[in-house]
Design a protein that fits this description.
- This is Aminotransferase class III-fold pyridoxal phosphate-dependent enzyme.
- One of its GO terms (molecular function) is transaminase activity.
- It comes from Metapseudomonas lalkuanensis.
- It holds the Pfam family Aminotran_3.
- The protein is of the alpha/beta class.
- It folds into 2 domains: about 160 residues, Aspartate Aminotransferase, domain 1; about 260 residues, Type I PLP-dependent aspartate aminotransferase-like (Major domain) (Aspartate Aminotransferase, domain 2).
- Helix content is about 40%, strand content about 15%.
- The strands form 3 sheets. The chain has a 7-stranded mixed sheet with strand order 4-10-9-8-7-5-6, with helices on both faces. A 4-stranded mixed sheet has the order 1-2-3-13. Strands 11-12-15-14 form a 4-stranded antiparallel sheet, with helices on one face.
- Strand 5, helix 5 and strand 6 form a beta-alpha-beta unit.
- The two termini are about 35 Å apart.
- It binds 4'-deoxy-4'-aminopyridoxal-5'-phosphate.
- 4'-deoxy-4'-aminopyridoxal-5'-phosphate binds next to helix 4.
Length: about 425
């Protein structure tokens, strides 16, 4: 069966709009560590996927999943020590004020629940998001989504604010001025909700602003907007679906770099290394107050198998010292990307940390004209040469580099060499 036949069958059975990567979609049959394999046995270096954070099909995660599935897998209305132990272990990685977890299956459900909780706890319903955000696929999230097309109209009780990036700051604007200007945009959003009689419930942000393109933030920006949101009686919800589980190498959670303790944290993707496991973390007071008026029941979220998998992921992160790996290999990767920037003028900026980078491609370094078509060619050429990356950002001109946390220096070198040759031939 050719890839084309499979694609046609997919279109017939699943519709032709379900998204696939690459001009020539890739059929994968096997994964191991940082490697993915197609049906011919050709291997691809995975420099994109954060879901398999401890590596594809990690034997300890697979073993935990299989052995718990062979012992007990049941919905979540029974007592089970594995689930409670996982909840205790997970919450211990947060600020002491964030001491209670609610499990879901997806990041979308976690963000939807976070919005419900914020609305319940504040009595408000206004929401502020970034002007290029994606937090999930439910109706209330579609109503505030700005990064993907959606037929839901943008919510009249939501406001979208731009996120500052030092790389794109107008010449002559200092970091402090940029922070002032963009903090003022959040203040204006709060005022505009107030003017329409809407009480703020929450500001929902990704702690790395990943979909926005990992902007270089001016110092103090997140801390200052958190203070404004709290002054207005709202809660700060931080989405760790992309930034969490040690991605930055500095901390377990992206928000820990910002100096502002959030009210609700949402988790997903890497949490189950591919098993659908997600959730939110908040104070016990908030979780119990919400639960007192809303019976929230999630059939599969935090099942015994989910808890076994989640615990195994935490074991591997600790035992294989993956934060340290993200830091060290990330520093090596950053050097490699900077070297490429010295060689290829199409690279306008390299930003990120740990094992998450955005490489901004521009047609002209001075005018910073986004090179979206070129980024697409690079991503597709990399795929042809056996290295998988993707693109992000409003202008689709940033290469998204976010490999599993078990990425090695040798993997980084192979990636850099391949990117070098693709850029040379662009
Ligand atoms: N938040 C962020 C930042 C995401 O990137 C995504 C998925 N791309 C989600 C939430 C939604 O997660 P899920 O697909 O598991 O519902």
């Amino acid at each position: 069966m050719s890839e084309l036949d499979l694609l046609q069958r997919r279109h017939r059975a699943m519709g032709d709009q379900s998204p696939l990567f690459y001009d020539q979609p890739l059929e994968l049959v096997k994964g191991h560590g940082v490697w993915l394999f197609d049906e011919s046995g050709k291997r691809y270096l995975d420099v994109y996927n954060n879901v398999p954070c401890v590596g594809h099909c990690h034997p300890r995660v697979v073993e935990a999943m299989a052995s718990q599935a062979a012992t007990l897998n049941i919905h979540t209305r029974y007592l089970n020590d594995r689930i409670v132990s996982y909840a205790e272990r997970l919450t211990a990685t947060f600020d002491p004020s964030l001491d209670c977890v609610m499990f879901t299956c997806t990041g979308s459900e976690a963000n939807e629940l976070a919005l419900r909780m914020a609305r319940f706890c504040t009595g408000g319903n206004g929401v502020i998001v970034s002007s290029y955000n994606y937090h999930g696929n439910t109706t209330s999230l579609a109503e505030v989504t700005t990064a993907l097309p959606s037929s839901e109209p943008f919510s009249p009780v939501a406001r979208a604010v731009p996120i500052p990036c030092l790389y794109r700051a107008p010449a002559g604007t200092s970091a402090a001025e940029l922070a002032d200007q963009y903090v003022a945009r959040v203040a204006a959003a709060i005022d505009s909700l107030k003017a329409e009689g809407v009480q703020l419930a929450a500001m929902l942000i990704d702690t790395l602003f990943a979909n926005e393109g990992l902007p270089r933030l001016p110092a103090g920006y997140v801390e200052r907007i958190a203070a404004l949101v709290h002054e207005a009686g709202g809660l700060l919800i931080v989405d760790e679906v992309q930034a969490g589980f040690g991605r930055t190498g500095e901390h377990m959670w992206g928000h820990q770099a910002h100096g502002a303790v959030p009210d609700i944290v949402t988790l997903g993707k890497p949490m189950g290394n591919g098993f659908p496991l997600a959730g939110l973390v908040a104070s016990r007071e908030r979780v119990e107050a919400f639960g007192g008026r809303n019976l929230y029941f999630n059939t599969f979220g935090g099942s015994p198998v989910a808890a076994a998998v989640g615990s195994a992921v935490l074991d591997v992160i600790e035992d294989e010292q993956l934060l340290r790996n993200a830091r060290e290999v990330g520093a090596h990767l950053a050097n490699g990307l900077e070297t490429l920037a010295g060689r290829h003028s199409i690279i306008g900026d390299v930003r990120g940390k740990g094992l998450f980078f955005a490489v901004e491609l521009v047609r002209d370094r001075h005018a910073k004209t986004p090179a979206g078509a070129e980024a697409r060619r690079v991503v597709n050429q990399m795929r042809q040469r056996g290295v998988l990356i993707s693109k992000i950002g409003q202008d689709d001109n940033l290469l998204k580099i976010r490999p599993p946390l078990v990425f090695s220096r040798a993997d980084a070198d192979l990636f850099i060499d391949t990117l070098d040759s693709v850029l040379r031939e662009l």
